[in-house]
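INFO batch 0412 | record 1 of 1 | parsing
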Amino acid sequence: MSGEGGALRIGEFARRVGVSPELLRAWERRYGLLQPIRTEGGFRLYTDEDAERVERMRRALDEGFSAAEAARRALAQERSTEGALDDARERLLAAAYAYDEAAMHAVLDEALAGFSLEAVLQELILPVLREIGTEWERGTLEVGQEHFASNLVRERLLALARLWGRGGGPLAILACAPGERHDIGLIAFGLVLRSHGWRILFLGADTPLATLRRAVEATDPRLVVVASMDSALLDAQSAELRRLGRTAPLVLSGAGASEKLCRRLHIDRLDGDLVAAAGVVSRAG
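INFO prediction complete | emitting tokens
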């Protein structure tokens, strides 16, 4: 059962992160890796931050560290990352507001050199873009500043995505729903999935579903993701999405892919945190 604000009970959380409930409880008890919140009824609920610690722990274990050392590194990395990337967020926002292209590139260069791609996406790039979008909606930011920052970040991410379709791993096709122009979150998802060995076929913004269907028929992907920030855009394509879902491993993502909509269409939904979801998908795939 899901908890409040997206937090999860142990069983659903375990499925999300790909670790058994018994092992998660051991990591929580022995190393303090997990820091669940408690409901009034006494249930533990696990958050996105817990999922990130589990992911860092798994990476350290894969590198050969003992469980105790892996947990220590996961917790230490969280503390060091938070402080450095807090400062980077402030600098990136200031550069965006000032139309300072060189400063924005400098902040991104430093962050990508010093931290994992997942951390930079989750703790720097996506939060800054969300804040910029919020300020624009409030009228405290010019549309030119929002376009400047978004276009620069998008170009940087696509530069990292060069040749992400090569290799021998499973293939994922990523597309925005017809009418949807916001594709940065989907690019971020693809980059993390690529880091786990997947191949990416990126169709991008405003993709006609007929085009997507032909791409699916030609490539036989392991996963097809259709994203939208607007539920109305997905709802307008409900019949075609149902048909595609019957013949392809389709999932929906983005703020428009509500649980209610996905249940009605009988199509699976990616978690709202696409960077964390990419790690889950990679282990399931």
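INFO post-check: The chain has three domains: 4-64, 75-160, 171-284.
INFO record closed
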